[in-house]
Structures are given as C-alpha cells and as structure tokens.
Description:
This protein is α/β, with parallel strands linked by helices.
Amino acid sequence: MKTINIAIDGPAGAGKSTIAKMVSKELGYIYVDTGALYRTIALYITENDIADEDIEASLEKADVSLKFIDGAQRVFLGDRDVSDLIRTPEISMAASRTSAIPAVRDYLFETQQKIARENSVIMDGRDIGTVVLPNADVKIFLTASAEERANRRYKELSEKPDCPTYQEILDDIIKRDYQDMHRETAPLKQAEDAVLVDTTELNLEESAAAIVKIINEKIG
C-alpha cells in the first residue's frame, strides 16, 4: 500500500503542531512533530552544558526517539519521556539555534525520512517540504502575522504566574523568525510547490478544514 506524505512548514507560533494533529486525526495519518526532535536535542545540550564545538561528538550519546502511545506522539531522551520538558521558552530559543547546526540536522534527518517511508504521515517543521520530504505528495506553508502569533501565545500563557508580556513574546517571535529565515543550513522558506495557508483570520477548526480540503483536492 502506497504511503502518503504531507509536509507542513511555517514559522514559530503559526499553529502547525496543533493543526497538523487535528488533520492527521481526521485523515488517519501519523503526525510527526519534527520540532520536538530538535527541542529534545536542545534540552540534551542545555542539561549537559555542552559547548558548541563539542555538540557533534556528543550526539551519539543523545539517544533521541519518537514513540506513538495510544495514537499520540511522545518524545524520549534515553528512557525518559521529555514531551513536556521541551516546551519552555528557553528550550524554544535553544532549539532555533541548535537546529541550524549541520551535524544536528544530519543526526535527525534519517530518523524523519525513515518514519515517512514506512507510514502515511503529516510532518511539520521548518524545512520539511524543501529538505526532509522534497517529494511529499502535498506541501503546505502555514503562517500568520507575527502579531497574531504573539497574541495566541500570550493567551496560552496568560494564566501562568511567570507569563511574559505580550511585547516580550512578540519580540521573541520576530527574533526567532529572523534566525530561522537567515540560518545558513536549511533556512525557513516556502517550497515552490507549497500551498500558502494564512491563518491570521482563521480559528483552529477553520485552519484544519482548509488544509484537509487542500489535501483531498490534491490526492483524492
């Protein structure tokens, strides 16, 4: 049976993970959050205080893996489930930096491709349609204005006692966008054959429905 690969790329805070999960559930595909892999490497480097020049040599000890438990993706560092630990602002910024390191990308590249070869997947990230799955059956570039992405993130964090201000979140998003788009290795950009989906004026359900429609139109 032929596997179907769907690539969803876009900037931080565009809702890629949440929307991709909704679409994968409706279509019965496996959802692969590649950002979680890079975040886990960032966590590993941060926890072990590894200097940049030592990262490549240390990767063989990282032992990063994805496991699908009750249909949901969980990410492991060794035998430790770190799915929640990797979602802090500190690790988000660290992941943006470490994902630009060629050795890190090479380390995770085969893991991502192997999953896609063996399963029908919806895979999201920054360079899925351009680098990881250049022959994906459908490519989506999911985005929203920086202001709207910051607003969504602020609402998500607003009930926490240490919630940053809206302006701080917006500044972080703008900074990360710049880092992602200007890194030397696999910068964030829309693949030539990707369909642009701007969710600035859409809610989650509307965004997911728009993507399902595109996928159905392209693959039937």
